[in-house]
Amino acid sequence: MAERKPLISGNWKMHMNHLEAIQLIQKLSYALDHADYASADVSIHPPCTSLRSAQTVLEADGIPIALGAQHCHWEGAGAYTGEVSPAMLAKLAVSYVIAGHSERRQLFGETDENVNRRLRAILSAGMTPIMCCGETLEEREAGQTEPRITAQVDAGLAGLKQAQVGAMVIAYEPVWAIGTGHTATPDDAQAGCALIRDRVRAGFGAEAAAGVRIQYGGSVKPVNVAELMAQPDIDGALVGGASLEADSFSRIVRFRLQ
Ligand code: PGA
Questions:
Q1: Maximum CA pair distance of the chain?
Q2: Is 240 touching ligand 1 by the criterion CB < 6 Å?
Q3: Looking at residue 257, what is its pLDDT?
């Protein structure tokens, strides 16, 4: 079994203008130390308007937090009003890009096919995708959790190479747990992440399954992160609300000490 370093990611969503972003990064850099960065990789995903400022502060102060984006288009350039290309993000030293977040799927009509195109484009630009999947409450209550996740994983990863899948990140985010305060139980979160890893093994082999990092996301907080992270198939957390404050996010990064 490959050693998988945890990845704790802060998805800031549509919060933090560039001045607020600079402040939050500086607070995080005070709150986190080398031991924290040694035990977990950390990424932050500000809105696009804050990426350049975030890059400048991270580089100038030598802060080992990876820069992430929340979204991109799959085309390299063109008449796509409002979009940004993977190459534009890569130029800002962005390392991770979220694709297929449930808010993008539900509010902006993103399909599995879109997610797959986005993944390919992110990989071609030399960045690491964080592909989100997860069932809605209705799907869960209808007993559709497994087929839903399986379908999202299969369609999202279609045509990718084994090595690409083994080096990427997948986030299991049950939609009913996002922003609701209803965290999945450690058992349910583990079951979802194990299902994703099994599906990766079936499609891309044991090496890819051992390498892919699978995050849990959905109301992760300092009080519940340790028991989630103790599960064998959970390799990190995708954190929304609790990533907007340096105190709570740094306590999540330091989950072993909770
Ligand atoms: P939350 O968001 O932590 O606020 O539930 C998680 C996410 O949307 O990634």
A1: 51
A2: yes
A3: 66
pLDDT at 256: 80
The verdict on residue 215 lying in a domain is yes
User: How many domains is the chain partitioned into structurally?
Assistant: 1
Query: Is residue 197 domain-resident?
Result: yes
Residue 237 lies in a domain: yes
Judge if the beta carbon of residue 166 lies within 6 A of ligand 1: no
CA of 249 to the centre of ligand 1 (A): 12
With respect to residue 223, please indicate whether it lies within any of the assigned structural domains. yes
What pLDDT digit, counting tens, does each position of 102-151 carry?
A: 999 999 999 999 999 999 999 999 999 999 999 999 999 999 999 999 99
Is residue 173 part of the annotated active site? The answer reads: yes
Q: Is the pLDDT of residue 2 over 70?
A: no
Residue span of the structural domain in which 118 resides:
7-257
- Give, using CA atoms, the residue closest to atom 2 of ligand 1: 240
pLDDT at 258 over 60: no
pLDDT tens digit string along 19-40? 999 999 999 999 999 999 999 9
- pLDDT at site 1: 45
Q: What is the CATH number of the domain that holds 101?
A: 3.20.20.70
